[in-house]
TrEMBL record:
This is Right handed beta helix region. InterPro entries: Pectin_lyas_fold (IPR012334), Pectin_lyase_fold/virulence (IPR011050). It comes from the Bacteria. Gene3D superfamilies: Single-stranded right-handed beta-helix, Pectin lyase-like (2.160.20.10).
Length: 636
């Protein structure tokens, strides 16, 4: 130091400042580990501090590495009885999982080989590994079909069967791959199969009844894939009631193609069948939803003898027989389905089905007895808000199908449907309600609020009592008639509008042999014309008592024409006539009641009688109560 004053700290002597600057320069830049301060005390330089730090870190690294060497887990050995663990670092492997001792206080420990009894003494070496119990549980929940496929396997049916036979609640496929099956795969109860978007191809050399089959299965589900039957399986999925019946079946998001045609009209893309036709054990709770059936051989789906079934949001395109049908079922629903190009009906219930809803479906280019069918003694249901376009035959067919002492056709409503005949097709019925052969009449069958377009025979209603045909719209260039009744009693035909020229009488009440219509009420119906004004608005073939009021024609021969003696209460019928208002045919009808109005050129108003019949008191919000006289004129 230049001055070395040894002045005490806090010195403001410029010489001390000069000495401090020199000391600081050495502190920063000197390579020596120490530098003396103003008072001759050695201080560590930055270089000295750096040297000490590096030496300390080196020692720590050596110590840490030694610690790791001393505490590292040893190379694992296989789990086996008699192996002794003496150090906490010793490990072993069992079923692919590495374990160590959980509590070092248990050392030394000799393995017994009884894993369930001693597994609690060990922990797995990784926190992201499942516990043994969890791995066992998950393994029991699902299996993958691919785990059972061997190299060179051509027929994958045995792999499916092996996976299913494990009894695992869930059987899965590797997503988006293809499998070939040459034999039927048997389904089990309490199991779900998720095809995960895969495609199943039937490659059988001889015809299979089904690609997948279950006998008396319960709680069985299948979803999410395609089954191509390639004409070698009659059904994609088939469940059979056996002796006890199937229960809780769910088939969703499946696409089934190419099922084989069966001349007995059995089978289907998905079929739930009964052991002895319609007399076997009953099934229950079947749901088929969001499925596609393309170019199927018989039905898209057919469900027999089932209590509580659903067809929901399915699509069928191409079937030589029916689209989807419930047979001898109870409490079933068909809704939001789309059916195209079926030779027979699009949707139906049959063989004594009780309790059904067929609503909100769409069908095009289907035939059979009708696009929508209710047949063979089915009762207690509704056919509503469906659309049937390009119908090859009838639009809706509600028929008994059997005579004799069979169940009477009853309690059925066809409401709010839209039906259109296919162009070039003729002589079919828009809505056909037909109860047996007339001996056993049906009852409470309502045909209401439908649109029937292009059918030459729009509505036929045969052999019913206590019924209603009302507020239907009948359209088309030319039709044979608007509404035809045969052997009906206590039926109201009301508010129907025919916007076509009928070739024959517009509204008809006909006999069935010696059985007549009786107590028919024709009210507020209208037509464009009846036989170009050469036919009558209403035609009654037999005797009986009827009413015809407020009906309108744009051109008819008569308002009412009776072939035989009948009593007809009339009033307020109106429209253009080419003949007399009423015609009795061979025997003049007995007409009584109010006289019908005749439309003609308006003349001067008739003078009112001198004295009113009485007064009505009405309330006018501006002037209060007002008395208004009323008069009786003519027969009114």
């Amino acid at each position: 130091m230049a001055f070395n004053t040894l002045n005490p700290i806090d010195s403001s002597d410029p010489r001390d400042l000069f000495d401090n600057a020199a000391i600081f320069d050495q502190y920063i830049n000197a390579s020596t580990p120490f530098v003396p301060d103003r008072f001759k005390v050695n201080r560590l330089t930055l270089g000295g501090m750096r040297y000490n730090f590096e030496q300390s870190q080196s020692g720590r690294t050596v110590a840490f590495q030694q610690f790791l060497r001393d505490s590292a887990f040893e190379v694992p050995v296989a789990y086996a009885a008699g192996l002794t663990l003496e150090r906490a670092s010793q490990t072993f492997v069992r079923d692919g999982v590495q374990y160590r001792i959980a509590d070092p206080a248990d050392l030394a420990y000799t393995l017994t080989g009884n894993w369930p009894g001693e597994s609690g003494r060990f922990v797995s070496m990784s926190s992201d590994m499942l516990s043994d119990a969890e791995r066992t549980r998950l393994r029991s929940l699902s299996v993958c079909v691919d785990s059972y496929i061997t190299e060179g396997m051509i027929d994958h049916a045995p792999a499916f069967q092996a996976a299913i036979d494990t009894g695992a609640p869930l059987v899965v496929c590797s997503g988006l791959r293809s499998y070939d099956i040459a034999t039927t795969v048997n389904l089990r109860s309490n199991q779900a199969i998720d095809l995960c978007g895969s495609v199943i191809n039937v490659t059988a050399s001889t015809m299979l009844d089904a690609a997948f089959f279950g006998l008396a299965i319960v709680n069985q589900k299948m979803r999410g894939g395609t089954i191509n039957c390639n004409g070698m399986a009659k059904s994609g999925v088939r469940a059979h009631s056996g002796d006890t019946g199937c229960d809780a079946l769910s088939y969703t998001w499946l696409r089934i193609t190419g099922t084989a045609n069966d001349p007995t009209l059995q089978y289907g893309g998905i079929e739930v069948a009964s052991r002895d036709g319609l007399a076997g054990a009953r099934n229950a709770n079947v749901m088929i939803a969001f499925c596609e059936f393309v170019d199927v051989g018989t039905h898209g789906s057919l469900v027999y003898v089932t209590d509580s079934g659903s067809f929901v949001n399915n699509m069928v395109d191409g079937s030589p027989n029916h689209g989807m049908e419930f047979v001898a079922c109870n409490d079933c629903i068909q809704t939001a389905n789309r059916i195209f190009n079926c030779t027979l009906s699009a949707l139906g219930v049959g063989a004594g089905t009780i309790g059904f809803v067929m609503s909100g479906n769409f069908a095009r280019n289907c035939g059979g007895d009708g696009t929508f069918t209710v047949e063979h003694n089915s009762i207690d249901g509704v056919v509503s808000c469906n659309v049937g376009l390009d119908c090859n035959t009838s639009g809706i067919n509600i028929s008994h199908g059997e005579s004799g002492a069979s169940t009477r056709l009853r309690n059925i409503s066809a409401i709010g449907n839209v039906l259109r005949q296919k162009s070039g097709i003729s002589n079919y019925i828009g809505i056909n309600a037909y109860a047996s052969t007339g001996i056993h009449m049906g009852s409470a069958v309502f045909i209401q609020g439908n649109t029937v377009d292009g059918f030459t025979r729009p509505i036929e209603y045969r052999y019913f009592e206590d019924g209603l045909v009302s507020e239907n719209i009948i359209d088309g260039s030319t039709v044979n008639f608007a509404v035809l009744l045969a052997h009906c009693t206590r039926v109201k035909v009301k508010g129907n509008i025919c916007s076509a020229d009928t070739l024959d009488h517009s509204f008809q009440a006909l006999n069935y042999g010696a059985l007549i219509c009786d107590l028919i009420d024709f009210d507020d119906n209208s037509t464009i014309a009846s036989g170009t004004a050469a036919k009558s608005l209403i035609y009654i073939e037999g005797a009986g008592t009827h009413r015809a009021s407020a009906n309108r024609t744009g051109g008819s021969l008569h308002f009412v024409e009776c072939l035989n003696t009948a009593t007809v209460y009339t009033g307020d019928n109106w429209g253009a006539l080419a003949g007399t208002p009423y015609e009795g045919g061979t025997t003049l009808a007995t007409l009584s009641g109010r006289t019908s109005l005749t439309v003609g050129t308006a003349g001067p108003a008739a003078a009112l009688p001198a004295n009113p019949e009485g007064y009505l008191t009405i309330f006018n919000p501006q002037v209060g109560q007002v008395k208004v006289p009323y008069y009786k004129t003519g027969s009114q």
